[in-house]
Structure formats: C-alpha cells, structure tokens
Amino acid sequence: MDAGLAALLGAAVGSVATLGAAIVSGRAQARAQHDHWRRQHRRDAYANYLSALHDRDIAMDAILDALRSDDPDLPDVDEKMRRFVTLAREVHRAAEVVILEGPDSIAQVASRVTHASSNLSRVMRRMAENAHAGDTTRKAEDTALAAEREHILYRAVKDFRLAARSVIGNTK
Questions:
Q1: What is the pTM of this model?
Q2: Residue 15 forms part of a structural domain
Q3: Is position 106 within any domain?
Q4: Which residue range forms the structural domain that includes residue 70?
C-alpha cells in the first residue's frame, strides 16, 4: 500500500473516531443538562407546593384557634375561612404542577397530603357550622379530632418533603 493512501486512510479513521466520540460526548452532556433541567423544575414545583401548603396551614390554624374560644368571633371566623379557601385553591394549583412534573411516586404522596388536608378541613368546617348554630355539644370531640388530624397532616407533609428530596437527589 502506498504511504500516501495509508496516511489518508489513517486520517479518515481518526476523523470518524473523533466524530463518534464527539457525538457520544455531546449526547451525554445533553442528557446531563436535561436531567439538571428536570430536577430544577421538579424542585421548583415541590417548593411552591410546600410553600402553598404552609400558607394554607397557617390560615387553617388561625381558624381552629378562633373556634377553640368559648365565644368565637364569628365574623372573624368567616373572614379567616374566606382566606383559607383562597389559599386552598393555591394549594390545588401547586399540586397540579407537582402531579405534572412527577414522578408517580411523588404524586401518590401528594395525594396522601390532600386526603389528610381534606379530613382536617371537614372537621374545621363542621366546627365553624356548629359555632354559627350555637351548638357546643361536639366541641370537645371535634377539637380533639382536629388535633389528631393535624398530626396526620403534619406526618403526610413530612413524608412529601422526604419523597421530594429523594426525587430531586437531595438526600443529605
């Protein structure tokens, strides 16, 4: 074989190998960037959800505190309920983004938070209705039930936080 042809063939093989390595490297980098982008979007969705939950839970605590009084200020309770409903809608919107961003495992944990929130909310609403009706027969029972359900909600939110950290790879 002629030396010039061998050199040309060697250069061609080298070019193909370099091009192949560049393609593989480019794909790996693109994949790493996509994974980073996905983690960031999930992190933002999870953080927004937790923030909305926090704000809503503070509003719920304010209602429950007002209803524990022997003589609750009903117009104040009603105003706090309106704020709670507004914040609950924000939680729902944030939960939808969490579900879209996924994965399914985090959506399932978020569903448990929603279920625990609904259970506590039902007790809170019944307490408000009874306060408006002047009915105190179930007040002690509902107050205890609300405390129990607050604890269940707290655990569900804690589970969500742990699951979210695991999904985004922040387990330190």
A1: 0.79
A2: no
A3: yes
A4: 38-168
Q: 30 lies in a domain?
A: no
Q: What span, in angstroms and rounded, lies between the C-alpha atoms of 77 and 128?
A: 7
Using pLDDT thresholds of 50, 70 and 90, give the confidence band for residue 148. very high
Total domains, the chain: 1
Structure tokens at 67: 């209803």
Give the pLDDT confidence of 62-78 residue by residue, as tens digits: 999 999 988 999 999 99
Q: Tell me, what CATH number does 130's domain have?
A: 1.20.1420
